[in-house]
Automatic annotation (TrEMBL):
InterPro entries: ATP-grasp_RimK-type. One of its GO terms (cellular component) is cytoplasm. This is ATP-grasp domain-containing protein. Residues 141-244 form the ATP-grasp fold RimK-type domain. GO terms for molecular function: ribosomal S6-glutamic acid ligase activity. Gene3D superfamilies: ATP-grasp fold, B domain. SUPFAM superfamilies: Glutathione synthetase ATP-binding domain-like. GO terms for biological process: SOS response.
Amino acid sequence: MIEGIVIYSREDLNKNLSYIDWLIEEGKKRGLNIRLFLEDEINEVCIDFLFAINRSRNFNITFKLEEEGVRVFNDYKFCILGNDKLIAYDYIETLGLNYAKVYSNLKEMDNNKKIIEKPKNGHGGINIRILDNLDNLDFSKNIYQEYIEDYIGDIRFYIINNKIEHAVIRIPKEKSIVSNFTKGGSIEIFNYSYKEEEIINKILNNLNIDYGGIDFLLLKNGEVLFNEFEDAVGSRMLSHLGINDTMEKFLNHILNEVKGME
């Protein structure tokens, strides 16, 4: 058996227990012995392991493990991009791709426009709101971004081994500003175009995504705007749509990556 670990935060553990069990059982079928460790236990790991699946969103853990020669899924660069939205927007800007305007200070803001506040490292649609006023803003913790009026929904591209495997569009329920499935958004398969595939491939040219998500806002005129990267991407939406092949593809990718490292 090839030894590996999967890492979760305590906060995310309980809601992901069935996924963890699935991961461990499917791993065994492929000769991968995957053990669970919590984020705050990682310094106590004393087993010899070749790989780690970091689902904690803590890029410091990824950095430390990579320094020790461990193959981490996902790597340090993508872990940062998936957990710091400002760094992600900076990367997207170097590619000449579009995203909703981000305000870097109070002077740039227009009181006549709707502005969204969201945490720099947020996920799952948590703590996203439209501002009622411009008081008590915290630019060190949050992103302040223009609200897109002609927004239809949020497209998630599922990437495994740096290739698009699936795409789903999430449409927010009425009067909601978030489209997340766990927040009541409706979902359906998204049939992406060649143009959208080209955008994804441009993003992937200088990235290595083992298993992650790339999210875009779809506008009424058909334009797409980059929204965020998702490092610890889930599979609930796909399972709801009857698609259950991501675990198989991800574990097969891990096996191909590590089987020559023994």
